[in-house]
Amino acid sequence: MPQIGRFAVALLAAATLVASLCALQASAEEHENEADSANDREALVALYEATGGDDWSDSSGWLDDGPLGGWYGVTVDEDDRVTGLSLASNGLVGELPAGLGSLEYLESLDLGNNELVGELPSELGGLSNLVELDLQNNRLERNIPAELGELSQLTVLDLKYNGLWGPLPAELGQLSELRILDLRGNVLSGEIPAEFGDLSELTHLMMRFNGLSGEIPGELGDLGRLEWLDLSNNRLSGEIPGELGDLGRLEWLDLSNNKLSGSIPGELADLSRLRHLSLTANGLSGAIPAALSRLTELRHLSLSANQLSGGISYRLGRLENLQELRLGHNNLTGRIPPELGRLGGLRQLWLEDNDLSGEIPARLGNLVGLRQLDLQGNQLSGGIPAELGNLTKLRQLDLHGNQLSGGIPAELGNLVALEDVDLSNNWLSGPIPEGIATMTGLESLLLHDNVLSGEIPSDIGGLGRLEVLDLSNNRLSGDIPARIGGWTRLTVLDLSNNRLTGEIPEDLGGLNRLEYLDLRSNRLSGNVPEGFAHLWSLTHLLLRDNQLSGEIPPSLGGLEKLQWLDLSINFLSGEIPAELGQLADLQALYLSYNRLTGELPPELGELSNLKHLMIRRNQLEGEIPAEFGQLADLERLNLWANQLSGEIPAELGQIANLTRLDLDDNELSGEIPAELGNLVKLRELWLNGNQLTGEIPAELGNLINLRRLFLDGNELTGKIPGELGNLSSLTRLWLNGNQLTGGIPGELGNLSELAYLYIGDNQLMGGIPAELGNLSNLTHVYIGDNQLTGQVPAQLGALGKLVNLFISGNQLTGCLPAAWESADLKGSDLELLDLAFCEE
Description:
By secondary structure, the protein is mainly beta.
């Protein structure tokens, strides 16, 4: 064969060999890629099975045999390797499988807004190509794995709004490419690692709503690219590091709702790009640095709820871009700087609850864009500037709790955008301006606790959006305008403690959303309107202390939501309607000081939620219904000064929550029920001024919380029970004016809190017990007009607080305690005894 032929054959053979080798290598790489892709497929299948893939919102393509790129939310490269997984808001429920850590080409993992639970797999720290990790708004818990600090390419770590707890791993400080770290809304605790200061690329650090404690590391001042720092709503303490002033790119700084102390660092004034600064609700003290006026980009400045003192610097008027200024709830003093009137872009000005004084600057009327002005709870004086009428965009005006005087400017009628006005608790005088009727958007008008006079403007009825009107505690006169009945949105109407006259308008019965109606302490006359039966939403009906007459409308029993009914101190007559027993939610029924007659309706015993039943000083007759014993929640029962007769029902001893029982000054007869000894919460028992007979039940000694016991002015007989000496809280014991016999029990000397001991005008015998000398708090004593004998014990001379002492009308002998000779008694009858004082 020619040599050229042999060379060609060899060359062909070599080419064939190379081609074969390349084919073998390509086949091997293909098989390797297929294997790696299969591993990715296996990891995804594990995720699908662990998180209820069959119930996902969208699982299209999943578990198909085709390329992984066809699976919903999966992104792959040219080799079908998974580079992105985005299943946010897709209904994933369950735990994250550790197999996700095998997706070695993964660059973005977004599983936010699902129902993932359990812990973060530490295997995620092996995803060396991961750039973004977003697991926000799930229910993940336990610690953040320290292995996440190995994600060297990571730029975004978003774990906000989960249940992660435990300390922050210092290893996260190794994430040199990280730009956004968002851990808001977890339960993380412990200190902020100083290593976070090494995150040189970080622009956003957000860790609000956790339980972080300790001091803010000064190393955070090294984060030269940081634009957003939010550490609010934690438990951070110590001072604010001055190093934060080195964050030259910072636009947002929120350290509110922590336990920070010390003064506000002046270095914060170097943050020239800052737009939002909130240090609210800490324990910061000292003055507000005037240098903050250099923050000319600032839109929001909130320093409220601290312990800041001193004045408000006039220089803050240079913050020309400021939209919100909150300095309330501090100890600021001095005047409000007029220069604040330069802040033309201001929307909210809150200076409430400080000690600011002087007048409200008229220049605040230049803030034409203002929406909210809150100056409440200061010591501001003078008049309300008429210039505030220029604030035509104002929605909230709160000046309550100051010392403002003069009239309400008519110019406030220009504020047609106002929704809430509170001028209460001042010294404002004069009439309510007619122009107030032009505030047609008004929802709440509070003018109470001033000295306003004149009539309620008749055209006020145009305020159809009003929900709350409180004009109480003024000197307003005239009639209640009937047009108020057209305010269909009204829920609260309080006109109490004025000088209003005339009848209550029937039109008020049209206020079907009204929940609270208070007309107390006026001079209103006429009947309780029948139209009130249509106030279906009413919970409180308060008409006491007027001159109302006629009968109580039975239709009030249809007010199913009523909780409080007070008709006392009027001239109401007739019987108590049995229909009131239908008020199942009623907690308080006050009918005292009227001219009511007839008997107590047994139906009132059906008011199972009743706590106060007060019907004193009427002309009621008949017996106390035994059904009252069913009022298990009752705390006060007062039937004083009627003409009730019969026996005290033993069933009253079932009212376990009763703290005061007033049945005095009636015509009750029979014995005191021993069952009253079951009322262990009772603090006051008034049965005096009746016709009760029999002995004092020893069971009354069980009333360990009793402070006052009045049984005087009855026809009680027998001995004073020694068990009364168990009443360790008793301050007043009145048993006088009965027919008690026997001796004074020495056990009464145990009543260490007793101030009044009135047991005179009985038939008590024997000596005065020496144990009464233990009653060191005794101020008033009446044991006279009995049949006591013997000498006054010397121990009674130790009663150093005595004011009144009456012991005559007995058969006492011997000498009187020497200390009484020099005692400063305001009233006594010692001179009637014809007994000398003992020698010391």
